[in-house]
Write a structure and sequence with these properties.
This protein is mainly alpha-helical and about 325 residues long. Helix content is about 60%, strand content about 5%. It has 3 domains: about 70 residues, Transcription elongation factor, GreA/GreB, N-terminal domain (Helix Hairpins, Orthogonal Bundle); about 140 residues, no CATH class; about 70 residues, no CATH class. α1 runs antiparallel to α2 and α6 packs across α12.
């Protein structure tokens, strides 16, 4: 006899990208191919006459009910699921190993030297390829933005034309083409270093926690989904919180904890909000991470790169 008091296994709402893809493929197969096929078979069987003893008709109707139940279940599950995808900011394989669960390569012991130079390619890649790549590829688990349509599409295209016109084409009327291209690359390269370093100081430092898809899913199945706010706080690090210059120049990106928790709050308020968040973290037993200065955070990032460059035992 089944024990009704026995606790049921907890259903996790976390799923990997591969797992979500399998569910969507199953849903697509059932809805676009299997159901129309069975519907036609039922229609053909019904046309043969008496349905009460028509095995093909009876089985077909039963199969349709099974398909409809499964389709409803898959649609509800897909709406409720949270896809656990790799963080694009720390997924830079094979050039760099930023997290403990990432595979090691023989050149990683020198990444604390060469990566600071390669960071410069972040901005050129985003400007020349990143936006267009996301436009062609469409939404994914890490960037769930829909493809622009209508007025938004025209805005995207027109602003790109204006940018390249002002940044590259117009200067070529007054300067040699090679000088314009060189100047544009150097400008974007410096911007790339600044942006990449700022993002890394908030995520890839010794003070931040790191996890993996497998750990998140196992934890969710054992204890339930991890608290979103706690995850944001413990995996993100502030730096230079007392520096008004940094807060102005970086637009509040040195307050990454507050930026993650309160994305709709203007960055000018982060300096006042930060002590409140830190106090609430202490009350609820969350670890609040912060480096006192920019240079302290930069040194922490360099040490982390060097640590991740060591071949795992």
């Amino acid at each position: 006899m089944q024990d009704d008091n026995k606790p049921r296994p907890r259903i996790s709402n976390y799923i990997t990208v591969e797992g979500e893809k399998r569910l969507r493929e199953e849903l697509d197969l059932l809805w676009r191919f299997e159901r129309p096929k069975v519907t036609q078979q039922v229609s053909d069987a019904a046309a043969m006459g008496d349905r009460s003893e028509n095995a093909e008709y009876i089985y077909g109707k039963k199969r349709l009910r099974e398909i409809d139940r499964r389709v409803r279940h898959l649609r509800k599950r897909l709406e409720a699921l949270t896809v656990v995808d790799k963080d694009g900011d720390i997924e830079q394989l094979p050039l760099a190993r930023f997290a403990p669960d990432q595979p090691w390569s023989p050149w990683h012991p020198w990444q604390h030297i060469y990566m600071f130079m390669l960071y410069g390619f972040y901005a050129p890649r985003q400007v020349l390829m990143g936006d267009f790549s996301m436009f062609v590829r469409g939404p994914n688990a890490h960037v769930p933005l829909q493809r622009p349509k209508g007025g938004t599409l025209w805005e995207f295209l027109i602003t790109k034309v204006i940018f390249f016109g002002l940044f590259l084409v117009l200067p070529m009327f007054f300067q040699p083409w090679w000088g314009v291209l060189l100047g544009a690359f150097v400008t974007l390269w410096i911007l790339g270093i600044i942006l990449a370093v700022v993002f890394q100081l908030a995520h890839c430092v010794e003070e931040a926690d790191f996890t993996s898809e497998a750990k998140l899913i196992a934890e969710a199945e054992e204890d339930g989904p991890r608290e979103w706010a706690r995850h944001q706080v413990e995996h993100t690090v502030d730096f230079g919180r007392k520096s008004r210059l940094l807060n102005w120049y970086l637009g509040g990106l040195n307050f990454q904890v507050e930026h993650h928790l309160l994305p709709n709050v203007c960055h000018v308020h982060y300096r006042q909000i930060s002590p409140v968040v830190e106090e609430l973290c202490a009350v609820h037993g969350f670890r609040y991470n912060a480096n006192a200065t920019f240079w302290g955070a930069l040194a922490s990032h360099a040490r982390w790169l060097k640590r991740m460059g060591v071949k795992p035992a």
